[in-house]
Amino acid sequence: MTSLSGWSHERVVVSEQRFTECKLLQWSKFLRVTMAVQCVSKIELSISCSNLLDKDVGSKSDPLCVLLQSVGEDQWTEVDRTERIKNCQDPEFSKKFLIDYYFEKVQKLKFGVYDIDNKSVDLKDDDFLGGFECTLGQIVSSRKLTRPLQLKANKPAGKGAITITADEVRDNRAIVLEIEAKNLDKKDLFGKSDPFLEFFKQGEDGKWQLVYRTEVIKNNLNPSWKKFTVSLHTFCNGDINKPIKVTCYDKDEDTSSDMIGEFTCTTAKLLEAKDNAVEFDCIHPDKQKKKKNYKNSGVVRIKDCKLEAQYSFLDYVMGGCQINFTVGIDFTGSNGDPRSPDSLHYLSPNGVNQYLSAIWSVGMVVQDYDTDKLFPAFGFGAQVPPDFKVSHEFPLNFNPSSPYCQGIQGVVDAYRAVLPQVRLYGPTNFSPIINHVGRIAAGAAQQPNAAQYFVLLIITDGEITDLDQTKQAIVNASKLPMSIIIVGVGEADFKAMEVLDGDNGVLKSLSGEPVARDIVQFVPFKQFANAPKEALAQSVLAEVPNQLVSYFKMRNLGPVNPPALTK
Questions:
Q1: Per-residue pLDDT tens for 292-348?
Q2: CATH number at residue 545
Q3: Residue 401 neighbours by CB distance under 10 Å
Q4: CB-CB contact of 411 with 448 (8 Å)
């Protein structure tokens, strides 16, 4: 273990760290396997400081910055450290910190700046110039964060500031291809051919690796495939001069597909089609060997090929997109009398219940992406004072003109305050709160930019009463910049929630209209009773990044401040 001066009663764990990391890693792997949507990106952090304390006599400090990451329960592990810069109070470190970023997690980081006067790796003998603690989400959403250094928690160092700049490490280029073929060989006995294309890149070992497969065009010797987009990294490892192999097959449902022909080229050659179409002879190797006059088995024509930026979730967030978080809480009678220990709304002696746990778990992640930290919070299914009529979208603070709570703590405080004032009733209607947020999201959708996205968290104990209306509300919301997270508390049957989730099929309204995109994620709280506290947030938020990107891609909207196209 290594103690870092300046932060008392906290430890950097080396041996115990491995056990904690393995538990979280195993859980993370489980989530990736079951949902396959984990948002993992590499973030590069650049560090600079200004006006540091001068601890050396006769010269300036020789600063170095250390990055620590929380592994839980006030225990920290060192991720990396910069180089030491001699005799400098305004250092700009060339060494970058590279860290995995997960939208679904609250990743606590701590930066410590030291004056290094010896060659020992142990920092306890070096002067602590100040530190700063935050989450990776705060850095990513700000992109560039400058804060004063502190000697201890809430105690300024008296001098010095740190600036942290975040950049996603990725090749943001994508290749867009539009392809057709002419006069392909007829391979079917009682028809033509059912052609499709496969694209391969060559690995370091010389083996071909499949990177993309088109759709099958039935019974057609002159097919035209749908335009498609593949990240350039996937397509050719970002190297446009690397060999690419394209193979044309005839699809056979009963046996293995028959090769029609193939050709080899480079991505650079394909890109020549951005000005004029490029054609390639589709060659079958066996036919070429056997037939003297063999020319080809058809021609593959690249109608259009270009590179364009492929924006990620981080591009949108770093580009200025705000994620607006709204909470909807179920106050129906099936929850039980809040004064009874059997009620899901009962506050235990330590002041928590499943509703509060869900609010904290999800809210602590999302709040880093909302600048003003003002969160609308509503209840539904209760009789509300003063006339005690049933309401399905009443603000927890009873202020319809301003239903906002200050931060997640404000939502928690409003929930606790409203419990003794309302009468739990019913039925369990979701559509009013979904439509409420949908109306606000519809206003944002009128803007010609990717500046706003909305996440609605609904916490409920049972079956939906207005299932048909809720399906229609979700279909409508799927066309808007909006995601819906549903957390089921208690032991009820949540089959209807799984239908809304859409993982087992496309959700449709009563009229048969399908959702424009999948926007609902449902999880039962009881599955996470014995899991790490981070696990619930990881599960319910795992799909949000892809949902956000899918909406803006559907609208053909890039980030407000888009990153430059990678050279």
A1: 899 999 999 999 999 998 888 889 998 999 999 999 999 999 999 999 999 999 998
A2: 3.40.50.410
A3: 5
A4: no
